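COMPLEX REQUEST
Ligand: adenosine-5'-diphosphate
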Amino acid sequence: MELRIRNLSKTYANGVVALDKVSLTIPKGMFGLLGPNGAGKSTLMRTLATLQECDSGSVFLDDIDVLDEKDAVRRLLGYLPQDFGLYPKVTAHEMLDHFAMLKGLSHKGRRREVVDGLLQQTNLFEVRNQRLGGFSGGMRQRFGIAQALLGDPQLIIVDEPTAGLDPQERVRFHNLLSDLGQDKTVLLSTHIVSDVADLCANMAIINKGNVLLCGEPQKLIDAL
Ligand code: ADP
Ligand code: ADP
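STATUS: Structure written out below.
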């Protein structure tokens, strides 16, 4: 699906302009949103994930009005926020099974199939019976993706996922996202240049709520 953002603006109550007429077109595949801390990335991600209101502008996911048709967007969306909590005492399998039930997968056998599939896809099948409290940072992030993928979303939004991961885990996480980008729209926010350069077909650079550049990573890097 294609996400079209036009003139999106947000000023917080304290006067901080987090988004200043942001316009971006995000096609199917991997798209990287690169910017320093405070650039407005999380504000944009939360808005696209229908979790926060903006002051003005429009966002369309194909022909769905994202700012208006929130339920429709939520059915198509998988969102991994920057900081998410996990219940430490339940296992990966128990937790996913529970969320799958909440998603309406009431048939036990079918649920098992979906949950096991997601655990395999995120390389967590071997540790499915371990408690989430013992998971490493990389395992937590991959579990977050598994959770976000329940319901087979077409748009996946991931906010600063690789901060704090060791190099091996980053590669693993990148491979997982690349696979998703084959047939879905994946929006990744990061302040790490190599995340977008290695991974994304398209990217934008954002700072102080403004889109500075947008295009293919290699072309933008060559032009610097
Ligand atoms: P990051 O830069 O890592 O995305 P921030 O520090 O901007 O994170 O924000 C972390 C959380 O604190 C967010 O949920 C945001 O809404 C909130 N926050 C950030 N800055 C302010 C602020 N000036 N006043 C109130 N809440 C803020
Ligand atoms: P990023 O994710 O790129 O770090 P954010 O969207 O978190 O950027 O923040 C953009 C700007 O808005 C920052 O200056 C931040 O401090 C401010 N901000 C974020 N959330 C809030 C909030 N809830 N209230 C006030 N200011 C905020």
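REMARKS: Residues 12, 14, 16, 18, 35, 37-43 surround adenosine-5'-diphosphate (ligand 2) (CB under 6 Å). The first strand starts at residue 3 and ends at 11.
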